[in-house]
């Protein structure tokens, strides 16, 4: 059968967008190089036209320059066409990448949705409400225990608060009186000065000893008073 009809040839895979873009860009670079060479040639012809006098020689140079200019315009048209093709391929590639991103996003969302559904099966609102109620009950019991442990002992229950406030006011009055009396030491208070002088009763310095000096001009040391 293969000898009669021949074997089926394996077809090459179609070029990708990236391959087509690279191929067109290489062609565009080639066209750009040709346009640059033509620009150099046109510049040379322009200089020759300026230096040549009007006549057959100048007309010949102008004819060559016109031919080069036509080639440049043709290559510029090809370059614009290649740029348009590259732009279209870029737009298609951008759209394809957007679709791929959308597919990945959908796959991720489906996976997350499935996982969430599985998690929601294990979590029930009623269980959460019951747990919250139990926590509130436990907190109430804990508060009651703390209040019980913090209860004071040996304090009568029949104490009148007004009596306590009266004793507190009296205590503050006594503290104020003690503070006023303690502002000045007892030995510096006016009614104690006479007693202090009587207790000390130091003898007066003799008149002949006041401002006395020795032979060196220094204050003389008073002799012991008997």
Structure, described:
This protein has 226 residues and is mainly α. It has a domain at 15-118. The protein is 71% helix and 0% strand. The chain contains 6 helices and no strands. α2 (17-51) runs antiparallel to α3 (56-122). The model has no long low-confidence stretch (mean pLDDT 77). It comes from Dioscorea zingiberensis. This is Charged multivesicular body protein 5. Keywords: Coiled coil.
Q: Span from first to last CA?
A: 162 Å
Rg to the nearest angstrom?
59 Å
The main sheet comes to:
none
Number of helices: 6
Structural class: mainly alpha
- Which range best describes the helical content: under 10%, 10-25%, 25-40%, 40-55%, 55-70% or over 70%? over 70%
Q: Strand-and-helix sequence, N→C?
A: HHHHHH
> Roughly what fraction of the amino acids lie in strands?
under 5%
Could you give the count of β-strands?
A: 0
Task: Report the principal-axis shape.
Answer: elongated
Mean pLDDT: 77
List low-confidence stretches: none
List keywords for this structure.
mainly alpha, 6 helices, Snf7_fam, single chain
Would you summarize the structure shown here?
This protein has helices spanning 2-5, 17-51, 56-122, 125-149, 161-181, 193-200. It has 226 residues and is an all-alpha fold.
Topology:
Elements: H1 2-5, H2 17-51, H3 56-122, H4 125-149, H5 161-181, H6 193-200
Helix pairs in contact: 2-3
């Amino acid at each position: 059968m293969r000898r009669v009809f021949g074997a089926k040839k394996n077809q090459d895979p179609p070029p990708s967008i990236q391959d087509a873009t690279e191929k067109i860009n290489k062609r565009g670079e080639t066209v750009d190089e040709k346009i640059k060479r033509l620009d150099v040639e046109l510049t040379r012809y322009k200089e020759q036209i300026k230096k040549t006098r009007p006549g057959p020689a100048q007309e010949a140079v102008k004819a060559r320059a016109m031919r080069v200019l036509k080639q440049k315009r043709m290559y510029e048209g090809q370059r614009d066409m290649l740029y348009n093709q590259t732009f279209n391929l870029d737009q298609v590639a951008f759209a394809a990448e957007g679709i791929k991103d959308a597919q990945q996003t959908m796959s991720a969302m489906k996976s997350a949705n499935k996982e969430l559904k599985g998690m929601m099966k294990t979590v029930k609102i009623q269980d959460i409400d019951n747990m919250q109620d139990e926590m509130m009950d436990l907190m109430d019991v804990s508060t009651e225990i703390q209040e019980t442990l913090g209860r004071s002992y040996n304090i009568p229950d029949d104490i009148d608060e007004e009596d306590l406030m009266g004793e507190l006011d009296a205590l503050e009055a006594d503290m104020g009186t003690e503070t006023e009396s303690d502002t000045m030491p007892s030995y510096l208070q006016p009614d104690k000065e006479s007693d202090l002088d009587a207790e000390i009763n130091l003898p007066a310095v003799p008149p002949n000893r006041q401002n006395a000096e020795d032979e060196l001009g220094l204050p003389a040391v008073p002799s012991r008073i008997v």
